[in-house]
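Colleagues,

For the teaching module next term, I've prepared a clean inverse folding example: a structure given as C-alpha cells, and then the sequence designed for it. I'd like students to try predicting residues themselves before seeing the answer, so please don't circulate the second half yet.
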C-alpha cells in the first residue's frame, strides 16, 4: 500500500529519488554560527569564565590561569576517590580549557581580519589614514596666503 502511495506521489515509482530530493531540501541547522562558540556541550566563553565581549588578552589571561590550575603535571587536587574525580578529571578539564582557548583565539582572529578587510575596502578609511599620516591631530599645518 505504501508503494502504491509512493508511486502515485512520484510518477514512475521513483520514490527513492523523491525521498532524497526532499531530504536535500530540508533546512539545515546554522552550524557555522554555533560551532565557533561551543566546546562540546558547553559555551567556550563559559568554560574560560569570560564574557562574550572579552578581548584576546582577557581570553589569554583566563586560559593561562586555568591551565596553571588544571595542568596534569601541576595538578595537586583531590585524589581519585574524592568528589572532584582526581587527576583524570583535571586532565579532561584541561583538554576542555585548551579546546575552548583555541576555538576562541581563532574566532577572535577571524573577527579582526574581517574588520581589517572592511577597513581596506572602504575608501573613507584610505582618506583617514592619509590624513593621519600627513596632518593628523596635533600636527602643524601651514597655509601660505
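(Answer key — instructors only)
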Amino acid at each position: 500500500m505504501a508503494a502504491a502511495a509512493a508511486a502515485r506521489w512520484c510518477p514512475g515509482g521513483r520514490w527513492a529519488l523523491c525521498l532524497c530530493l526532499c531530504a536535500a531540501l530540508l533546512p539545515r541547522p546554522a552550524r557555522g554560527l554555533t560551532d565557533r562558540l561551543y566546546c562540546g556541550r558547553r559555551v567556550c566563553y563559559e568554560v574560560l569564565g569570560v564574557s562574550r565581549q572579552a578581548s584576546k588578552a582577557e581570553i589569554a589571561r583566563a586560559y593561562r590561569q586555568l591551565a596553571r590550575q588544571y595542568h596534569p603535571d601541576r595538578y595537586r587536587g583531590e585524589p581519585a576517590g574524592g568528589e572532584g574525580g582526581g587527576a583524570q578529571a583535571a586532565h579532561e578539564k584541561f583538554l576542555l580549557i585548551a579546546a575552548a582557548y583555541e576555538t576562541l583565539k581563532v574566532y577572535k582572529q577571524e573577527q579582526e581580519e574581517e574588520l581589517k578587510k572592511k577597513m581596506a575596502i572602504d575608501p573613507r578609511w584610505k582618506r583617514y589614514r592619509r590624513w593621519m599620516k600627513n596632518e593628523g591631530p596635533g600636527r602643524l599645518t601651514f597655509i601660505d596666503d
